[in-house]
């Protein structure tokens, strides 16, 4: 990974759907994404689970186990 790519990877900027908000810490960014961009409706989650995604958000895994 180049320096530019590494710098953008470690920024605390929300890139979810073009949001663009900046956060002081990674923890604040994660909470923002969970609260604003990830659907927690049980019906939606059940439908997503049935689709066998190729990856899962770490925050989702941590909440479920």
Automatic annotation (TrEMBL):
Keyword Zinc on entry: yes
Gene3D superfamilies: Classic Zinc Finger (3.30.160.60)
PROSITE patterns assigned to the protein according to its UniProt record, in alphabetical order: ZINC_FINGER_C2H2_1, ZINC_FINGER_C2H2_2
GO cellular component entries: nucleus
UniProt superkingdom: Eukaryota
Domain named C2H2-type: residues: 12-42
GO molecular function: zinc ion binding
Keyword DNA-binding in record: no
Transmembrane segments: none
Keyword tags: Metal-binding, Zinc, Zinc-finger
Protein name per its UniProtKB record: JAZF zinc finger 1a
Species classification: Eukaryota, Metazoa, Chordata, Craniata, Vertebrata
């Amino acid at each position: 990974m180049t320096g530019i790519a590494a710098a953008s990877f470690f920024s605390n900027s929300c890139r979810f759907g073009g949001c663009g908000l900046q956060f002081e810490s990674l923890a604040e960014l994660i909470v923002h994404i969970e609260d604003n961009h990830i659907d927690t409706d049980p019906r939606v989650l059940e439908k997503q689970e049935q689709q066998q995604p190729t990856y899962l958000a770490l925050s989702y895994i941590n909440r479920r186990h």
